[in-house]
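User: I'm curious what two different proteins look like when written out as structure tokens. Can you demonstrate?

Assistant: Sure. I'll show them one after the other, since each token string lines up with its own sequence. Here's the first protein:
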Amino acid sequence: MTNKIWLIKLVPGYAPNTAPILSVLAKRTYTLKNSERGVYSEKQKAFFESDVIGIEGRPQIDPTLHESDLVAFKLATDVIVHGKAHSPKGKKAFYLDLSVQVGQLPKKIVRVFGERHVFVTGSGIEFSETKPFDSVDLSYANAYGGIDSLSDEATRHQFPKNPWGLGFVVKNNPKALQDLLLPSQEDPRQLLSPKSLVIEKYENWKSAPEPQSFGYTGRTFYSRLMLSGLSPDAQVRSEFERQNQLQKTSEIGTSKASQPPSPLPLVNPAFYSGASNGLCVPYLRGDEEIRLIHFDADHPQFTCKLPGERPTAWLDLGKGPVELGMVLHTVEIFKEENQVSLVWRGCAQYAGPESLQKVTQLDFGVES
């Protein structure tokens, strides 16, 4: 019989009322099968102790693959889905509407296209025919956004809502438009067209399409920067300057002069919710049904249930163990591996970091 384990961590932090807290985190990974409830996996995924950035590891231009699990307090449950869009087995698709639905909550729907480009004609611009596909990688790197460094030779324009993506063009310049790769993921209610592609003025970026995917958003996305301690406009300027400093630093951390610039001040716990729009949901119970459409070639409608195992945690600061109420921080689905990891949190207030110097016993644990 498998000896089920919980991976556990103790993380200090602050509650929404700014009170210092100690949080006990519990993580467990399960195997998923269509039409079944998740079961304990022999291959447990470790805590992500820091953010995992894309292949090149460049946070200013590479997407976040995973965010750190070591968060002391989230206001809601993040539902994260990693995977690919798959056409039904044996068929090709020009586009598919993918969706994720958790329990009875509203669906999140993203339209996924095959490869498309822009080409310039004598009368304007047009989109190429869409190439049919078997599968398409899902990532904010393939969503609307990115950096326009060609339409205005004097300025490099970065899309604040998603600096990683594709298709962001400010001015009608053939250098920027010819053979431009279009995003493969869009909101079906706000699709790009040749008429809407060029935004004409950088100040119009707020009315440009919202980037769409199912994984982690970026900490530098405008929607999350608004939750830091600066005004929205100051946030964008500050992050732009910080990213420029990072780009100019050849080796980070090798000397005092090469220390990475400090991140923005964080004051709102909602900042730590990194799920895509529509997938940051009220705390889940952990037994909900999950419906994934077009994430699996063999099962175009893949339905499963979360395992329904809620851990209990305790914390002892020398006065005896205190049981902590647990809430579900993160549901992270790895569809290509048919696994899901759940991270739970229980927390207790304490007198603050300095008080721990007087604590003679510090113990904590998790039980099923």
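Here's a second, unrelated protein for contrast:
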Amino acid sequence: MAAETTQFADSLRQLDPASPLYATQIIDSLLAAAQAAGASDLHLQPTPAGLDVRWRLDGVLQKVAQISRGGASDVVSRLKVLAELPTYRTDTPQEGRIRIQESTSKGQAQTAVEMRVSTFPTLFGERAVVRLFASEDRFSFVSELKLPQEIETALQRALVETNGAVLLTGPAGSGKTTTAYACLRQIARDSRESRNIVTLEDPIEVAVPGVSQSQVQPAAGFTLATGLRSLMRQDPEVILVGEVRDTETAVTLFQAALTGHLVISTFHAGSAAGGISRLLDMGIEPYLLTSGLKTVVHQRLVRKLCDCSTPLAATEPLGLTISQSRTTTGCDLCRHTGYSGRVVLAELLPPLAGPLRQAILDRQDTSELARLAIASGMTSIFHRACTAIESGQTDPPEVRRILGFVDELPPIHQPEA
């Protein structure tokens, strides 16, 4: 554990649980420290001894401190007050939001920091998780995402289209929403806000200038599918659907894509080809995919090696020979984890034409679609992972943590150059 984390834990222990300001001081300190550390999530896990405090840095949970049992319930209650949630309801899950106005370094302007709070009843009390959204000016445009150049170019080209679907795929925590917001800002900026851009989200994570954003309310019957159908009567040109979760939403999305609208959405899938297979499994007709899809990007985030890393002998991760690699060491800068920041790995499905198009129409499985995509020129995410290892950006254990092992993956042989 890094020295500053240890010092922070010590400072929390020095607070007086008997003080009426104890819960407020704890929460203020935790939220400020998590934000300063760049954490994406803050976890308060109830145990017989109190609350275990952990936060997620670069996609990995790290223990920070422990709060004694005496003040644990007050700490969670304080968090619920900030999120405008009823504190007396402890037997049911709740969700709320915290919005904090912060001054800039010059003290002349303020920026809004958004946090989403989720509580859940457990055996030893309420568990709370805070999602800290990225600042509104971070990764503002596609060019700042550091995607591979050919993928960035293809995505930029797709965003000027007037119809079709752009799907951003990957597991939870792979940066899909960040990419989606960058696409929205790109379109708004390049069109000088002359295009009618609307969104349906659950929830809205960041406010985007020049975009009309809406948050669904399933309890009131305002779902993604019903909202999308209603939006079609709002004269939209660009539509962002926060996530494709069911067949009804997917069908409506592709109908919009085929009737003169550019539709952007995120989708949980294990690969670019896997995204096609999942849509087919959901009952989407193959002709809708081959006609409506403009671009399918699959992305993952791997931790980046800290500058303290050291060279390692050649190895063969993921079944491909690696000429050189580096390994973690650990220092104060990286909190002795060996990693600092993250790197995006991505693959782009080639145009749905020729054998690949026919395979979709024939409802071929994921491995066959992946093989044909690679044969059509796609650089697989596994190949990019090996390139990232060779360049010293990451290491084999981190790639295995994110992508798994070679015997669990589809064929990754690349076409001849």
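A detail about the second structure: Confidence is low (pLDDT under 50) at residues 407-417.
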